[in-house]
Amino acid sequence: MSTLTGAMLSKFKKLYCINRNNSVCCMECKIRDICMIFEMMGEKFDKNAPIAMQSDVFPRFIINCRDGRTIFKENDTLEFELIIFDNLTELFIQYIYVFETIGQSGLGPEKARYELLSVSDGKGNIIYKNTLLTGNAPVSDIREYISSRLDYCLNNRKNISRMTLLSSVMLNSDCKNGNKKVFFFSAEAFSYSIRERLSRLNVLEKEDEEKLNELLSDKRIINGINMKLTKIDYYIQNEQKTVTFPRFKGYIVFDIERINSYLDYFFACEKLCIGQNILLGFGRYVMG
After folding, report:
1. 96 with 107: CB under 8 angstroms?
2. Which of 21, 26, 147, 206 is deepest in the core (most CB within 10 A)?
3. C-alpha to C-alpha distance for 43 and 196, rounded to whole angstroms
4. Which pTM value belongs to this model?
5. pLDDT by position in tens, the chain (length 288)
């Protein structure tokens, strides 16, 4: 996911950034109000800084990949999921074009070339194949996903009380006295992170804020934490160096009765992801 995301952003900058060949930063750019990349990455994005080092970037897209391989042979196939939010869906064809050009120029430090075979929607229908667009980008409502997850729990008589991390996640508490204090796996951290994610995607309503304020002060929602601290190395190509970030693996157990009031939000962010910095996983988890 790190490689795909980094390559995609690099190609977008080369193709569409008006200041790609100079040192003008994004904050000084005269067309930032209509910049495609700025819209993708948020108002604090800096094209001159490695994305992995920008903690205040909130991308409006997610790349998910469940393939754990790190070595690929000729003719191997890699499948991944690209989710783009809000008005970025209007740029759907640009994303396809970018991934095609990455395949021609090469991916990763080894410049591995590939061919974009096809693009399909969530139901498996082919919408792009053999350089031809045969359908439109599928558009869905997050409420449909939440409803389907709640129906699954009801129909299968499942009580949801456990969150299993599928990738690293760093949850932030609210800013206090101008300093951002970080708390891991507390009600305060979950409330703030969910609020930030929904707000950045323009789906946060007044009633959501009221409910998340209740979660903020709920000190008894977490019953237990089984977590292992590991690390992940990320290679910054422009600086030719590797940086190491903390990574958490394991699961969190919630109080069954207390979490029921907030399941909508946890299911929403199961799909939308929460946390910080997409190159580090952006907080992918599954409730169950």
Report:
1. no
2. 26
3. 14
4. 0.80
5. 778 888 888 899 888 888 888 888 888 888 888 888 888 887 788 888 877 677 677 778 888 888 878 788 999 999 999 988 887 888 888 999 999 999 999 987 788 899 999 999 888 899 999 888 888 888 888 899 999 999 988 888 788 899 998 776 666 544 444 444 445 678 888 888 888 888 888 888 999 999 999 999 898 999 998 888 777 777 777 677 787 776 778 899 999 999 999 999 999 999 888 865 545 455 788 998
User: Distance between CA atoms of 175 and 182, rounded to whole angstroms?
Assistant: 9
Alpha-carbon span 52 to 243, nearest angstrom: 9
Helix, strand or coil, per DSSP, at residue 140: coil
Dist. CA 166–CA 147, nearest whole Å: 22
Residue 143 amino acid letter: R
The answer to whether 88 and 61 are in contact (CB under 8 A) is: yes
Q: 87-96: list long-range contacts, CB under 8 Å, 24+ apart.
A: 87/39, 88/39, 88/40, 88/60, 88/61, 89/137, 89/139, 91/36, 92/136, 92/137, 93/133, 94/12, 94/16, 94/36, 95/8, 96/128, 96/133
Distance of alpha carbon 251 from alpha carbon 64, whole angstroms: 20
Q: Which ranges of 106-255 does DSSP label H, i.e. alpha helix?
A: 142-155, 187-200, 206-216
How far CA 189 is from CA of 46, 96, 103, 196, 245, in Å, comes to 26, 36, 39, 11, 19
